[in-house]
Specification:
- Helix content is about 15%, strand content about 40%.
- It is built from 3 helices and 13 strands; from the N terminus they run βαβββββββαβββββα.
- Strands 12-11-10-9-13 form a 5-stranded antiparallel beta sheet. Strands 2-5-1-6 form a 4-stranded antiparallel beta sheet, covered by helices on one side. It has a two-stranded antiparallel sheet with strand order 3-4.
- Strand 3 and strand 4 form a beta hairpin.
Length: about 180
Amino acid sequence: MTWHVAVVRSGKEPAATHDLLTIGIEAYYPQKVRWKQLQLRKVPVSSPIIPGYVFFRLNEPDEQRYIDTCDGVTGVLTMGFTPQGDRKLACIGGGWVEDIREQEQRGDFDSTIDRSTKAKPGDRIRIVTGAFADRMAVILRAANKREWKVEVETTGPLKPRTTVSKAEVESLEEAA
């Protein structure tokens, strides 16, 4: 089944998703989580990654008529009309929605998660992403709050030095 897109009023993504799920249509809108300061404390707050849109999948083509009845839905993205005069829903293919859903479940859009490693200069780390992915390196020093200067371990005589984001590395103590 392919994903389709419902256009919703601002802030109505949760209500539209709830209504779609209630009538038996699989629906989803990706969310990000961040800290918000409320008086003397911080609380996690979620908001849509793509405001104004809810993704849905139809089990049967005739379910399309129920989409516009959901709270906050103003329409659906279409690609013209069928020969019978019905709206032809635009499709999102290529696993794009599944990829976003997987990233959200992994916590990629959650800024409340503490991703700081306890590594310090002199520690060995594994670079997870980027040009030196899956390579070992030694931390030389902190470049700034978010990056380290590292020396990448290689088999040759040259030891390339580069800057990597602290989010791109895994401390060996954490991996063990």
